[in-house]
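Q:
Just now I want nothing more than another pair of eyes on a protein record. Here is the record:
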Amino acid sequence: MSAQCCILAAAFLLFRLPYYSDALSCSSGQCQLREVCTSSVDCVGGLFCSSCAADGDTTNTCHRYKATNVTSIRGGLPFNKYSWLTTHNSFSIVGEPSQTGPRVTFYNQEDSVTDQLNNGVRGFMLDMYDFLDDIWLCHSFGGVCYNYTSFEPAINTLKEMEAFLVANPTEIITIFIEDYVTRTQGLTSLFT
């Protein structure tokens, strides 16, 4: 039995070695769909690194989830009759550089807002706060945005969405604003 086990293990390793040695050549944002990766930063934009143990796959590879544009399936319905792929805390992106010092908060997304849009996300949940004399996207601690929970000025994310809509004028984006802005006309000024 142990000889059979050794033969099977050797066959498994021989079968898998080229796959792993090929993976060593891709890293730092160069890995393509289904190539072996060690983390999501190895994968090109719009892909993330994971395995699917439920499918018996324990090897991390670059994956993509892309939604179907529901209006292309059956157009002409009222807006409230469609379901849109939506991301929670769409701005809370792993690896997003901090503009205010070290960040101590949780993350919800691996893709940039632009990559989320390119992957079919059409609903964006954004938490907006008064912070540093501007309106920022932020997690809060006790309802207050701090340097260590902030992400970026809201205008930056809105400009990403605007660029997508200019390039794709028939697309629809829904923004769900969790509004903690207290200044008068704050959101009106932001969207103007």
Q: What stands out?
A: The radius of gyration is 21 Å. The longest strand covers residues 123-131. Residues 2-23 form the longest helix (22 residues). The beta strands are 48-52, 57-63, 86-87, 123-131, 134-138, 150-153, 174-180.
